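Quick board copy: two proteins, each given as sequence then tokens.
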Amino acid sequence: DEIIEKEVKDMPVIIDASRDRLYLRGKHEGLLEGQRKGLLDGLAEGERKGLAEGQRKGLLEGIEGMLEIKYGHAGLELMASVKKLRSIEEMEGFKELIKTSKTVDELRGFF
């Protein structure tokens, strides 16, 4: 390897591969492919986040309506705590509890 490296350094003709037409074409195609993949990944992530946010918003509206209908103003006072719930699963669990609960205090126990 050392001999080859020395021979290449001593050669009078040096080829700059970074200026080669085939290299440049491959680089351009690679860049386009990377941009395309990045765009598709970004769109998929945006769609996933949008769906999750829509589901969260719908659950919040549904829970608010259920609390108002079943417990009036006292139930609506729980909405600040409901909005702090992190997961869709927690929100679904709370929604199910509203259906079976007998008092607002029972709902407060969830938090």
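And the next:
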Amino acid sequence: MDRVDYQPLVIQDLLNLHKAGELDLNPWYQRRSVWLPTQKAYLINTLFEKKPVPSLYIRHYLDIVTEKSIKEVVDGQQRIRSVLEYVAGDFGARHPNHKKPIKHDDLSQTERAGFKMTSLSVGYLIGADDADVIEIFGRLNSVAKTLNPQEKRNARFSGELKQFCLKQAAQRVNLWRSLGVFTANDIARMAEVQFVAELTLNMIEGLSDYSSARIDKFYKKYDESFPQMEDVNKRLEKVFAKIAELDPAAIRDTIFSRSPLFFTLFLLIDSMDGKVSTSKLGETLFAVDQSFNADTPVNKRKRSDAEFYLATTASTQRIKSRQIRRNYLSNALLSK
């Protein structure tokens, strides 16, 4: 093979190639179309949002019999099929200008034009023979690193709940880092996305143990439709707004920068519908932190203080520990 030549290609050009019969989506080494409707809709939403998608890889050759210039899709078949099916009206997808998933024909003329003029990156394989193509196809479809549960979840699901959690987590990336709740490496491995997912699960279903399998089931349950989206979004916004009113040090410089404690704090503020004095909240967080870090041995502390200490340092994701932390913090807030 000579080289890979990267060029932009707008979606309308892709549609034209398909209509002219110059796009081969079924080379012998390709797998069948296996994407679920939610995965297809997620791709279209990604294009609407002007977010990057992986490059397409195409081998360009001349069909001597038909005298047509053929573009054989080496990698990107699922993405291209999704675009073609969306334009054909087979499914709807979320658009930033609309509250509910919308089909192509229901977009405004301006929205349709914007979509079809979206540019895709295409790597043309120049001088590639079959052996080159098979090796490249294998390389592009291999996974080198071991994925954690959230990364696997993110790869498996593409629907409403996944998109909601991703967007909520991404909007707060500066907050996560400024308050010290998640490090850059945590964010790179999607820890904050899982955090938002579990917050959402507990806000809907009530306080529970941490369970990776339960989050998986939650993603599956709300993959095609997430009817509580607007309500949960409002609740999240209200809590984050209350947290933004605090002196950042009340979280950043205290035990509440630890994700299990921040989790407890968040759900407690939500249960109070955000109706808690900002000054009282800040004072309480500093006071709880000071008590927690006191020099007094745990076995010499008041029972409630000792239980809180243990619930904060051991089995932090068990429901019993979560209940103890919630009750302790609630009592501290309500005390005069």
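Board note added afterward: The first strand starts at residue 3 and ends at 10.
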